[in-house]
Amino acid sequence: MLRYLFGRLLIMIPTLFVISVLVFAIIELPPGDYFESYVQELRMLGEPTDLQEIETLKARYHFDAPAPVRYWHWVTGMLHGDFGYSFEYRMPVNEVVGDRLWLTVMMSVVTIMFTWLLAFPIGLYSATHQYSWGDYGLTFLGLIGIAVPHFMLAIILMYFANVWFGISIGHIMDVEYLDQPMGWDKLRSILSHIWIPVLIIGTAGTAGMARRLRANLLDELGKQYVVTARAKGLSPSRVVLKYPLRMALNFFIADIGSILPAIISGAEVTAIILSLETTGPMLIRALQSQDMYLAGSFLMFLAALTVVGVLVSDIALSLLDPRIRLKGRRG
Amino acid sequence: MSTPNPLPPPGAELTHYVSPAPFDPMAEPAGATTGLENASQLRLMWIKFKRHRVALISGVFLLLFYASLLITEFLAPYRLDTRNLDFIYAPPQRVRLFHDGSFVGPFVYGQTMHLDMTELRRIYTDDPTNVQRLRFFCRGESYMFWNLVPADLHLFCPAEGGRVNLLGTDRLGRDVFSRILHGARISLTIGLLGTLVSFTLGIVIGGIAGYRGGWFDHGMQRMIEVIQSIPSIPLWMTLAAIIPLSWSPILVYLGITVILGMLDWTGQARAVRSKLFALREEDYVLAAELMGAKSSRIISRHLIPGVMSHLIASASLSVPGMILGETALTFLGLGLRPPVTSWGILLTETRGVNIVALYPWLLWPMAPVILVILAFNFLGDGLRDAADPYR
C-alpha cells in the first residue's frame, strides 16, 4: 500500500510541473502586461503616473528578465507559499485570495456529495428498471439537466427562489459575515446559501454520473455470477445489493477524476453569475485586467485541486479494491 | 434456408447423392440473399441506426435545422438588426385562425401600447379589431442573401403596415424570432467547426501515438492527462481573454472555434489510440508494411477507416459541449461580441433577474439550445450503439 501511495505521489510531480509550464505560457501569451494597460489608462484619465512605483514593482517581479527566469521565480515562490503579487489590488495574492480558495474547495466537496447522493439511487433505479417509464423519465430529466446551460439555470433559480421563498440568493453567505472569522453563525449562513449553487452545479454532473452508473451496473447485471445468484434463489434486491453494486461502487469513486474538472468549471460560471465569494468572479476580473499573477495562481490552484482530487479518489479506490492496490507487485 | 433434407430417414441405407444443379465455382454460396455480407461498415451502421427511433428523429431534426441555415434570411421575417422603436419589449403575438367565430386563416391581432406610469413599464394589449393576416411567400423586408444577392422574398411576412413578432421583441424592438434564426448560423457552425478542429487533431495525434507507440505515445498520454486535469471553463476563459479586443468579429469567431476545438481533442485522441493499438496487430497491416507502405499511408488508408464509425459517434457527442461552451464564454463577456449574433449573445441579454420577471419571452433562445443539445445527445447515443459491432 505504501509503495502504491509513494508511486502515485511521484507521478503527481511531473504532472504538476507540466501544468505549471502550461499555465505560465498561457498567462504570458497576451501581448503587453498589466503595467502597460495601467499606465495607458492613467494617461487617458489625465492623472499623473507614478512611474517610480511601477519601476520598483517591475524590478521586484523581474518583468524585464527573460521568460524562463520569470517562470523560475514564479514557481519557486509558489513552493514557498508566495503566490506573487496582485498588481490590481496592490496586495500579495495570498491576502487577496484569502478564504476564497477554501470556499471553492468546500463548494466542490459539497457538490460531489450532492452528486453522489442523488446519482446513486437514480442510477440504481434506472439500471434495475431498464426501459421502464421511470427509467425513460429519469434519463430524460437528466438529459435536460445536461442541456440547460449553467448560467440560465442560475438566473431562473434566482428568480424562483425570490418569488417562492422570498430569499435573495447570490453571495455564499450573508454579507455581514464576509470578513468575520469562522464560527457557528457564519457556518449556518453559508449552509443556508450554498444549496442553490450546489443544485445548479450538481445537476449536470448528477445526470452524467447516473447515466454512467446505469451503464456500468447494466454490464454487471448481465454477468454470469448474477445469473448464478438468482438461480440459487437469492431475492432480487439482495442479488443487486450484494454483488453488482459493490462493483459499481468502485466506479463511483473512480469517476471523481472525470466529474471534478466539470464541477469546478461549472462552479466558476455559477459563481460569477451569483457573485459568490469564491474564485470565479475574481478570476474573470484578473483575466480582464491582465493581473497575471492572480490569474495564474487561480488557474494553477484549480488545476492542482483537480489533481489532488483525483489522487484522493485513487487512494480511496486502492483501499477499496485490492486488485488495484496489488497490481504493481505482480507486474 | 428451406433446402430439402438430403439425408434418408434413420436406419435406411445412405445413397450416393449428387446435386443435380449445374456446378458453378464462381456462384455465391446459398442463402446469401440478404446482401449484407458485402455491405460496408457504414452501411451496416446505417441499418442498425435506423432501428433507433429517437436517434433517427434527432438526426432528421438536426439535418433540417442545419439545412435551414442556408436560407435563414428567407425564413426569418425580419433582418437581424431591424428595429421597431414603437414596439420595445413587446410580448409574443399568438397566431390565430378564427376571428369572431369565422375562419380567417393565420393572423395575429395588432397590439396597442400604453405606458403604465406607476410601474414605469410598457403594457401591450391585443386589439381584436385589428386583424393582421399573415402573408406567405411574400415580398417583405429587403435583405442581402448571404451578404451577396439583394432579395426580399420571405416565407411569411406581416400584413401590410402590420408587424409579426412570434416571440416578442427585445429592448431595441428587434424581433426575437428572427434573431434566434440568425443566431443559429453562428452557434450551430461553431459547434461543427470546433468539432472539426478537435477531430483532426485527435485523429492525427492519436493516430501517430497509436501506431508508433513508444516515446511519442508516452508523451502524449501525459499531455492528455495534464490537459484533462485543468478545468475546461477557466482554461477557455483564460485563452479567450487573450484574443485582442481589436480583432474583427469574424476573427474572434474563428479564434473561439479554435480554442474550443484545441481543448477537446484529448478524448478523441485517446479513443483513436486505443483502437489503433488493437488494429495495428492485424495481418493486413503487416501485409501493407511488407509491401513497403509508409506509415502515413497505413494509418490513413488502413487504420483510420476502421475506427471512423466510432469517431463519428464520439464527435457527435462533443458538439453539444462546444455549443454550451460558446454560450458560457459569450455570457461571461469573453466570447463573441455584437454585432455577431449567436445564441450566447441572445442569452446574454437575459442577464438579470428582472428580465425573467418582466420579459420572460427573451428566454426563448434557450429552447433551440436545449433542443439541439438533446438531439445531438440522442443522435450520438444512437450512432454509438450502431457503431458497436457487439450489440
User: How many separate domains make up the residues of chain A?
Assistant: 2
Give the H and E element order of chain A.
HHHHEEHHHHHHHHHHHHH
By helix and strand content of chain B, what is the structural category?
Answer: alpha+beta
Q: Most extensive interface: pair and counts? A: A-B, 47 and 43 residues
**Residue ranges of chain A: pLDDT <50 for 5 or more in a row?**
none
What is the averaged pLDDT score of chain B?
Answer: 82
How far apart lie the N and C ends of chain A?
15 Å
- Oligomeric state of the chains? heterodimer
Membrane topology (chain A): Multi-pass membrane protein
Protein name (chain A): ABC transporter permease subunit
GO cellular component, one term (chain A): plasma membrane
Keywords (chain A): Cell membrane, Membrane, Transmembrane, Transmembrane helix, Transport
Describe the fold and architecture.
The complex is a heterodimer of chains A (331) and B (391). Chain A has two domains: 91 residues, no CATH class; 225 residues, MetI-like fold (Orthogonal Bundle). In chain A, 78% of the residues lie in helices and 1% in strands. Chain A contains 17 helices and two strands. Chain A starts with a helix and ends with a helix. Chain B is α+β, with helices and mostly antiparallel strands. Chain B folds into two domains: 72 residues, no CATH class; 209 residues, MetI-like fold, CATH 1.10.3720. Chain B contains 13 helices and five strands. Chain B has a three-stranded antiparallel β-sheet with strand order 1-2-3, with no helix packed on it. Chain B has a two-stranded antiparallel sheet with strand order 4-5. In chain B, β2 and β3 form a beta hairpin. In chain B, α4 packs across α7. Classes of the chains: A mainly alpha (331), B alpha+beta (391). At the A-B interface, α1, α7, α8, α13 and α14 of A face α5, α6, α10, α12 and α13 of B.
